Amino acid sequence: MISNVSSLVTDLAARAAKGRPVTIGVVGAGQMGTDLIVQLALMPGIRLGAIAVRNVGNAIEVAVQNGHRRENVIEAKTSATMDAAIEKGLLPITGDIATLAACGHIEVLIDATGNPNTGTQIALEAIRNGKHIVMMNVEADITIGRYLHAEARSAGVVYTGAAGDEPAAAIELISFAQSLGLGVVCAGKGKNNPLKFDAVPADYDVEARERNMNPRMLVEFIDGSKTMVEMVAIANATGLVPDQPGMHGPSAPREDLSEILIPKKDGGVLGGKGRVDYSTGKGVAPGVFCVVESDHPRVIERMADLKVGKGPYFTLFRPYHLTSLEAPLSAARAVLYGTADMVPLQRPVAEAVAVAKRDLRVGEILGKIGEAEYRAWAMTYPAAQAEQAIPVGLAEGARITKSVKAGDYLNATNCVADGSMLVTQIRHRLDQMDAQAMAAE
Q1: Element (H, E) at 292
Q2: How many alpha carbons lie under 13 Å from residue 105 in its C-beta half-sphere?
Q3: What is the per-residue pLDDT across 67-121, written as a single tens digit (0 to 9) for each?
Q4: Strands (DSSP E) along 145-258, which ranges?
Q5: Containing H/E element for 352?
Q6: What is the sign, positive or negative, of the torsion defined by CA atoms of 277, 283, 289, 295?
Q7: Which pLDDT value is given to residue 192?
Q8: Which residues of the chain have pLDDT under 50?
Q9: How far apart are the C-alpha atoms of 195 and 61, rounded to whole Å?
Q10: CB atoms within 10 A of CB 176
């Protein structure tokens, strides 16, 4: 039998031996939530404690279909009922986020919803109740993640992005490069689906069913929105920036990344170093990359000798990201060590804004990201502010006040965000604070 090879494995084994596994609450039972239901049952020293979801009946069926005995899955309407169920080895499911967050046995919550406003509510309930929070909800993170991180820090708990998502996976490479003293030129991901900016759910019903996905979620990937959101998440956790609105997205195969995603003066496409971008080229997806450089001839010689590239630019590459299968590792690290895998900077450097997919009429109320009205577009934070552009995380429920042409930004002159949403209220306060800070500088 192989010995434990890391402190995390050893420490989780110790928790399991003491009958005290890291106990996780999951919010959401869609594709990612279902993955978590399965994965948490397979990991030593970790357990699924409880679930919060809008449709309790549906979540019960999902749990039963994925390994839980029907008699062991119950609906719980109070935190006390949830705690009692967990003590008996049952799986309680509630329709109320606050009930889950107040459950005494739950140590950390994982948000698997993908909705910015819901994610805001989940994170704040977790923080109020002294729970760590793992955000698989990148849309919420890029909108108000810095506020949630500050609230968590004040409460003495961890706010973190999820291991396995491309932003956290890319940040692993960035951190590795920085620890070696290498310069970071560009970091990003391979795009996993064909890119079609005007994609709408009606065109992807069949493919979505075949992939066991919601068509809207599939379109969020295909129309580029997810890529834009993820690259902004990397930017706002590292200080790397989009080189231009929408980035370049070259068709650069894996072996050519270090020849294309480099400055123009050296034959590449970038206006400078310290950028985020993505590639549609062969062999990059579903991986993440970090193009690095060294100015020391000995290091360049060794890197070339070790087949990392020709130099002076080299590509560090991780050929996979395991999304929800890895996410529990962030929860474990938060509980055991009080550490985060990814947190936003105090001030953003990039923004994912909303761009009209089709002509929009006055009075229209916008739907969810991945539907037919808008898509995300990455740009620098100052550029977004100059355009008065609406963050894509505030687009759902927004009302069109002036006709918008396909391809135009949704901004303060043609669109009003839904002020009743908590995420909108918090984001507006952050924007006001930013404006005051910039005026004082």
Answers
A1: strand 288-293
A2: 24
A3: 999 999 999 999 999 999 999 999 999 999 999 999 999 999 999 998 999 999 9
A4: 159-161, 183-190, 241-242
A5: strand 350-356
A6: negative
A7: 83
A8: none
A9: 34
A10: 14
